[in-house]
Here is the input.
Amino acid sequence: GGGGGGGGATAPGAGAGGEALTLGFSQVGAESGWRTANTKSVQDAAGAAGIELQFSDAQQKQENQIKAIRSFIQQRVDVIAFSPVVESGWDTVLMEAKRANIPVILTDRAVDSTDTTLYKTFLGSDFVEEGRKAGQWLVEDTAGGSGPVNIVELQGTTGSAPAIDRQEGFAETIAQNPDLKVIASQTGDFTRSGGRQVMEAFLKTHPDIDVLYAHNDDMGLGAIEAIEAAGKVPGTDIKIITVDAVKDGMQALADGKINYIVECNPLLGPQLMDLVKKVAAGEEVPQRVVTEETTFDTAAAKAALPSRQY
Amino acid sequence: MPSFFAVRLQDGRLYGSLIDILHNGAPLALAALGMTLVIATRGIDLSVGTVVAISGAVACTWIASSPDPASPGTALTGIGLALALAAALGAWNGFLVARLGIQPIIATLVLMTAGRGLAQLVTDGQIITVNNGFFAGISGSALLAVPLTVVVAAAVYALVALVTRRTALGTLVEAVGINPEASRLAGVRSQSIVWTVYVFAALCAAVAGLMISSNVNAADANNAGLWLELDAILAVVIGGTSLAGGRYSIAGTLLGALTIQTLTTTIYSVGIPPEVSLVFKALVVILVFLAQAPKVRALMRRRRRRRDDAPPPAATAVPAETAGSGR
Amino acid sequence: MTGISVAFGPVQALQSVDLRLHPGEVHALMGENGAGKSTLIKTLTGVHPVDAGEIRVRGEPVAFAGPAAAQAAGISTVYQEVNLCPNLSVGENLLLGREPRRAGRIDWRGVRRRAAEVLGRLHLDVDPSSPLGAHSIALQQLVAIARAVEVEARVLVLDEPTSSLDASEVAELFRVVRRLRESGVAILFVSHFIEQVFEISDRMTVLRNGRLVGEYATADISRRQLVSAMVGRELEVLEQLDRAPAEPAADAEPPVLAATGLGRRGAIEPVDLAVRPGEVVGLAGLLGSGRTELARLLFGADRADTGELTVGGRPVRLRTPRAAIDAGIAFSPEDRKAEGVVADLSVRANIVLAMQASRGWMRRIPRRKQDELARRWIELLDIRPADPDALLGNLSGGNQQKVLLARWLITQPRLLILDEPTRGIDVGAKAQIQALVAEQAREGTAVVFISAELDEVVRLSDRVLVLRDRRPVAQLAGEDVELDRVMELIATGGGARA
Amino acid sequence: MFAGGGLRYESFASGQVLLNLLIDNSFLVVLAVGMTFVILTGGIDLSVGSVVALSTMVAAALLRAGWSPVLVMLVVLVGGAVFGLAMGAVIHYLEIQPFIVTLAGMFLARGLCYVIDLESIPIDDPLFRTIAQTAVPLGGELFVSPSVLVATVVVAIAVYVLHLTRFGRTVYAVGGNPQSAMLMGLRVAQARVGVYVISGACSALAGLLFTFYMLSGYSLHAVGMELDAIAAVVIGGTLLTGGSGFVLGSVLGVLVLGTIQTILSFEGTLSSWWSRIVIGLLLLVFVVLQRVLARRGVA
Ligand SMILES: Nc1ncnc2c1ncn2[C@@H]1O[C@H](COP(=O)(O)OP(=O)(O)OP(=O)(O)O)[C@@H](O)[C@H]1O
Ligand SMILES: Nc1ncnc2c1ncn2[C@@H]1O[C@H](COP(=O)(O)OP(=O)(O)OP(=O)(O)O)[C@@H](O)[C@H]1O
Ligand SMILES: [Mg+2]
Ligand SMILES: [Mg+2]
Here is the structure.
């Protein structure tokens, strides 16, 4: 393996055969159900593939992630994978990894390094594309409709990559139809509470909301509570589009409270382990691997729900 | 044209922006109430936000994992568990501060850090959704058309006001905060008072946590109550209580909490873009404090004295100002 | 200073007061507790702004922005309560803000040398690098004086500098003051010790209730005239001063509190002491002789390393003040600012604090009862302003002391430990308090009485325990309790007991 | 604790791991130094984390706009100091509690980040990159980053100022008893405002070090870092009430926090929540340890 055995420093008690690969994985944190599912998928897949996993949680801090990667380098793991907290500022530490001959795989979020040799591949969703898919459904759904459509948007955490990209993709797509207008947009911090509180305020200041676009299911679910409290019927009076497709969201979709969900798949584990084995063996891998993702409407949700794991 | 001030009846419950402020402000008001007493003893409690998360996590996990997740009995047990655990956590803080003599900010930082992990451990990192009518009722039901959250918060305020007024607790808390050594020499059981206020603060936070998770019928261990401690401290200070301990004002804290919530709701309502909302919040906080600062008021008074001699108290100008910016 | 008026809200602390201070004189500022002496001084140095009036220094009108400006203009001040930084060393406190420097940085060796020099001038034997907070309030007071004397100022203001000092320190201080006077410094001096005032001052200004009564040359006025000028009427209580209210000790009764071998390492060596009901036991000794330490051990404020205590014949362990209070012991500490006053609470709340604490927070003393207690003791001790709602921190030093006494007297303790209860109290009130102590004793309370004023100790006590260098030296009882005898023991140690 | 780590993980106790502790925490050291000044006067500065973020943002944005890197550094440092000056002036002259003023400062600085740009801004200025990637050899295989040197100098200056200048002694006096300090005729205003200027400047400097570390500006950088700084100072033995404490203690506090992080990253099997719980517990261990030592010191 690429520079592996050099230090020979596998964690104590590894025991099982000298050839077990070690993967250092630095996770963003545990800030959402999506993220937890993502973590679990990675852990399970590593176990199944017989890869030893060094897991480190960065508590949403880039500096912690950099520290973790440095310590992976020191421990001379075979492959490093991480979900960057933020796009910028990875060059230094990635350079160190490169110097130590440890291949790096990005998951979930990209980095904006101009030097693409710093990492082997990027495995993850395309947030802009997710926004586009959400917008596309709305464009189609309202095609041939009469009069303006008032949209409110629940953004993710201000400044976070998914929030920026999902807003961008959505805005760019609905621009096709001049009737579609975002009349209010506010951050709900990706949380149910935030979604509920912001939606409550929207409902009071804008009596004529037709569509809600939420950057994740959780905010959408919170908003549903607010819509119901206001005496309106979610999914009917106000159409709801969200992103993620976690179990609770799918349930709401199946119940008709949400109209459309763009999937953002957290179960990257198996795909990641394949890539790990390949790069460790020195095989060529594509620069970009997009997660297999789909979209759901009510019927699809009903079908998918029983086998939904997260 | 909907008005910021319009209040109507909807499904037997008052409905309107003002009601939202009260309803959404109730958890903050409660957390700030506990914080007021802690601060009065020269302490500070950074763990309230974490306790919020723990109490929601414990209650929801209990309910969701019980064989009968929809029954009121399950909900009650869950609530009881959450409160009991919170009391224990408060006692833990009290132990570190009163017995071991660790500085409050760092003693409660321990729980602030570890507690969120504890909450995630309980929920296994998932958002636990519950479907329990009784539990949903904590925030969803109303008493005489007033949301239950508002009723509960008001009742706790009234109770604390009564207890601190009718018993000697208020005075003794202040004495401990103003001069701990003199209080000790006067025979005040400062240790048990300190324990009491930390336990009370944790209980308040737990109730706030139940409200927050009932509001969305889910427990979010990672985000529930995040940074709530800062808002609570801010509310206490807006209310005129000094962080140096000693004299405190319960009514002031209530006003402070409502001011903060009004500000938040206003930001959502008038459509201030998220990227400038923090700057806006900062400016309002600065303005509120400038208006309240005794120094500034003295200056204003001196200038005004020449013209007329009845300066309006600045504190009452606060809600008026924020309300005025709603349309 | 002419026509000075200062008001704190509704309280008119000073009204149109004049004060003239000449170079090379010691000028005494006299008045009862709360007359406005400290306020006048703080006005002079720019702590409080004046509402009306004018301050001139050498004919030039000035308005100091604060103590720093006053200091720069050559006015050096010792304020009433010790105002130093307990967290810093003695040496630093002496020189803070004017440390010797070399190449822009503080020359610590120079600081130590200079501090030792200044302390030496007042014949103080303390380690300049020890933290100030570890020392008794008396020593802190001396450090504050040393600090003020250290700058070669043109005006030296001393607000009750001698309140916790004993005779030898006072003598030392006066030596310094005389030397300064000779070199042309103007000295403003506040004290409630009439004798000291007559000993040192050249002229005096008398205030009453914030108003000027008059200016007198010390030589032209008798003690009696001075007191009536301060008080505003003839004062019979003065005559009572000479009456010794000593009651014969009832030897038969078991002691309220008995200590055998009570001691604490580094603070005080083992002491045997028994106090019987109705008995006043005085503790006599010099500054730092360990009186306060002993009192704190008796009250459980500090924990004893050795020895046993019995209360009413039963052995007890006093681990906390609370335990002592439950055993019927009360303790009024010497350092009232740090250990007694709860500044931001009202006079009423301060008076009932100890009583309330022992009842627990559940059983609040009814408001009516609180008012009644507060009113009665405000009247009895003549606390001014006679407003139970005033914040204690806003009262003058002497009045604060009275409130603290009231706090303990209303708990009707079996043993009352008073550490310097008359510190900073004016003549009239001092007599009142002495009478009160005597009366408490007559009613059966045991009293331990500490005062820097030996006179007072001797006059009040049935028995005197003399301490020296934190060791008990002797106990005197009955006829032996006599000023000369006590002084001799303090000075020589006697060698009688161990 | 460190020895324990060394026993448990083979490569833990190597010299470079120790140095990495410094490399990874140099910005926190600088922050803690500034915070020590503030806390010594009995104040507190909650804005430091946000000022760090703002500094990274301003630096990145100005570099993107083509400013010269040296000028950018100057602007950032002066900006931080001015920000601190404004807060200090409000605290002292308008007598508003430091907690609140700096909390408003925290909101303001973070808010300004968003106003500058929501997205992260990469830095590819050659000077910044060079500084970021330079390793200063210490002989053997050991090396440190330039940031460590900067932090060391800052600590040295702070020790000098606190112990050898009148300003420093006034800081202690004000913390011990502000009323007394005023009556003693000390320059209280200078000290009370000054510490916030220092803290502001230190935050900006820490922001620059952070920028070298990250080579990016981002509005969500350093969230909650003020708590780390305060914790470091308090673990280092400084009293929050003011008047007592040492800069070197704060440095030790930073190293304690860093060690906790390092232990965690070496224990690579902890789930996210167990990491948090372990951080809390280790924090507790250190705090209690410090408390016991302090008590023994007094007795
Ligand atoms: N900050 C303040 N706020 C309100 N009242 C005050 C304040 N300071 C002093 N006073 C009042 O002013 C009056 C004069 O007080 P001052 O301290 O000058 O008396 P004093 O003559 O020094 O008495 P003492 O001999 O007891 O020290 C008192 O009635 C006191 O209560
Ligand atoms: N922790 C300490 N470290 C150093 N010296 C101390 C400490 N505690 C007390 N002292 C010194 O011990 C001596 C005894 O103090 P104590 O207060 O009992 O004296 P005292 O007889 O009450 O005299 P006075 O109250 O008049 O100063 C004092 O000189 C004091 O400075
Ligand atoms: Mg006075
Ligand atoms: Mg004494």
